[in-house]
Write a structure and sequence with these properties.
- With about 525 residues, this protein is α/β, with parallel strands linked by helices.
- It has 16 helices and 18 strands.
- The strands form 2 sheets. Strands 1-9-18-17-16-15-14-13-10-11-12 form an 11-stranded mixed beta sheet, with helices on both faces.
- Helix 3 runs parallel beside helix 4 and helix 8 packs across helix 14.
- The structure holds ligand NPW, adenosine-5'-diphosphate and potassium ion.
- Homotetramer.
- Keywords: ATP-binding, Isomerase, Kinase, Lyase, Metal-binding, Multifunctional enzyme, NAD, NADP, Nucleotide-binding, Potassium, Transferase.
- InterPro entries: Carbohydrate_kinase_pred_CS, CARKD, Nnr, Ribokinase-like, YjeF_N_dom, YjeF_N_dom_sf.
Length: about 525
């Protein structure tokens, strides 16, 4: 799913009105009606007090449409105008008149924080104060109103975005943003729903289709894409009946040091379980027996040294190479990696200490083959790009790194983001069960195993990150968040693959005449 910028959303709105021969007021009616339908389906007329807070722009206009429909359907509604500016949008004014026509009374005007409305914990707040048009800091009394919302503990449903949250910046003051329980966003999710510093402003979100011109949506390239099943299905390569292991490539995993052999084992298991034909692990001698006995499917080549990698020397021709998991940053390991980079021509995935070595010796970045995949967690990323001021600065710096060295950078975390040049691929799968040692090592193996099978590096990264998160999503239902460990990611890979082709279950329809007991 594409993640459109606010400029593109405005453009799409205008183009849709023109192409479909409708006014912007009609588009707003559609948008507001969708929100009303969503609420009506869930509330079924329940008389819970609903407080609809409307700004004076088009987000407020949407709120007025929702309030009008709620009122005409007999809900218990109070409508307020948060009067933060003298300028009103045309469609706000039209809907302001319409709600007056319906209720025979104007909504309650709020001009300051002197008398904030009473709201009970069990009430519902509809937040239509600011949408994507927010362009400067909010005034103090509106911040007090947001604090009032928090103090009531009532459920907040935000329209389009939690009010006060800009679509392209991290808020300087947390209290200047509404904390939404749920956000109903028009046509596209916003990038801020996926960044660690801004995702917290809404517990959940959902996109509502308001009929924006399909051609515009299809043909407009976006800076960011949200990667779910629909996006990865076209990447998947089916297997031919007469294929053999030679068709699925040979991956080499270089890593490990005394006490960290498990990292190589996990990565190697990731390689084969994702479907590569063969895997060879290159590690210090101390890893030979443990790996051979715990994972018989792998082949092993040992370094001359017992405890660390000192010379990368192998007599196989791999299709993809992973370097770094558990490798340590001993001077001899760094030299070995340096020497390896001078002659290596194979696709590379670099993780963990491989990234730490690159951070120490930035000149090595120039020796990476084009489209090398780097998979840093936040601390490792900081080594590469330096400290960032906020999540948007982090993305900007990561894009610069990706462009300078023509590499693919995977910013790991909740909603892992793969950065390739100026493009962002935001992964939709995964959950906090993955916050446990070794899950990153498995991911490295998965991406390397996909490249070995013939997926191009970018496709392998996007697909690998998706399957990794999906594995955890499917298994966490059985294992719970706490007891899930890195080996479980590997166990869930088959389920994640099978899930790609699962058809959604048809809705249960009651037989005509059948009555509920
Ligand atoms: N047909 C359509 O277009 C559709 C649009 N849709 C809806 O429109 C929403 C965007 O509406 P919007 O552009 O009117 O902006 P909105 O967020 O309501 O802000 C209102 C105005 O406030 C002002 N302002 C900004 N910051 C401020 C501040 N800190 N303190 C005080 N004032 C401030 C600023 O105006 P300014 O003063 O800069 O002229 C701004 O324009 C979008 O989120 C969606 O809900 C849907 O209906 C689908 C169809
Ligand atoms: N809260 C979370 N939600 C989703 N995924 C997470 C979360 N925390 C961690 N992960 C994922 O788990 C993996 C952890 O990788 P990493 O920190 O390198 O672990 P290790 O070095 O122990 O292998 C990454 O793929 C990351 O995206
Ligand atoms: K809002």
């Amino acid at each position: 799913m594409k993640i459109f910028s606010k400029e593109q959303i405005y453009e799409g709105d205008a183009l849709t009105a023109k192409k479909q021969g409708i006014t912007s007021t009609e588009l707003m009616e559609r948008a507001g009606t969708q929100i009303f339908n969503w609420l009506h389906l869930r509330m079924q007329g329940a008389q819970v007090p609903i407080h609809v807070f409307c700004g004076i722009g088009n987000n407020g206009g949407d709120g007025l449409v929702v309030a009008r429909h709620l009122i005409t359907h007999g809900y218990n509604v109070k409508t307020y105008i948060v009067n933060y500016s003298k300028t009103r949008s045309k469609d706000f004014l039209i809907n302001y008149e319409r709600i007056k026509g319906t209720t025979k009374d104007w909504p309650i005007l709020l001009n300051d924080a002197k008398e904030l409305p009473e709201i009970d914990e069990k009430d519902i707040i509809v937040d239509a104060i600011f949408g994507i048009g927010l362009n400067r800091p909010i005034v103090t009394w509106v911040k007090q109103l947001f604090n009032h919302f928090r103090a009531t503990k009532a459920f907040v449903l935000s329209i389009d975005v939690p009010s006060g949250l800009e679509t392209d910046a991290v808020p300087k003051d947390e209290e200047c943003v509404v904390n939404a329980g749920y956000t109903l966003s028009f046509q596209t999710p916003k990038l801020v729903f996926f960044l660690p510093e801004t995702a917290k402003y809404t517990v959940q979100w959902e996109v509502l289709d308001i009929g924006i011109d399909p051609e515009y949506l299809f043909t407009t390239p976006t800076e960011a894409d949200l990667i779910g099943k629909n996006e990865v299905l076209p990447i998947y390569k089916p297997r031919e009946k007469y294929s053999h292991k030679g068709h699925f490539g040979h991956a080499l995993v270089i890593g490990g040091s005394y006490g960290k052999i498990g990292a190589v084992t996990l990565a190697s298991r990731g390689v084969l379980t994702i479907g590569a034909g063969k895997v060879t692990a290159y590690m210090p001698k101390c890893g030979y027996i443990p790996l051979q006995s715990s994972f018989p499917e792998a082949m092993v080549i040992s370094d001359v040294n017992d405890e660390k990698i000192t010379k990368i020397d192998f007599n196989i021709t791999p299709d993809a190479v992973a370097f770094g998991v558990g490798a340590g940053t001993d001077a001899k390991t760094i030299s070995a990696f340096e020497a390896f980079l001078k002659t290596n021509t194979k696709p590379l995935v670099i993780d963990a200490d491989g990234i730490n070595i690159l951070a120490k010796k930035k000149a090595l970045l120039k020796s990476l083959p084009e489209n090398t995949v780097l998979t840093p967690h936040p601390k490792e990323l900081e080594g590469l790009i330096g400290k960032w001021t906020d999540d948007f600065d982090k993305l900007k710096k990561t894009k610069a790194l990706s462009k300078k060295y023509k590499c693919i950078v995977v910013i790991k975390g909740a909603n892992t983001i793969t950065v390739y040049g100026d493009k962002l691929y935001v992964n939709a799968t995964g959950n906090p069960s993955l916050a446990t040692a070794g899950t990153g090592d498995v991911l490295t193996g998965m991406i390397t195993g996909l490249i070995a099978q013939g997926y191009d590096a970018l496709a392998a990264t996007i697909f690998g990150v998706y399957l990794h998160g999906k594995s955890a999503d499917l298994l966490v239902e059985e294992l719970g968040y706490q007891s899930f460990i890195a080996s479980h990611v590997i166990e869930g890979i088959p389920l994640a693959y099978l899930d790609l082709f699962k058809q959604p279950e048809p809705p249960q329809v009651e037989e005509a005449g059948e009555e509920e007991n």
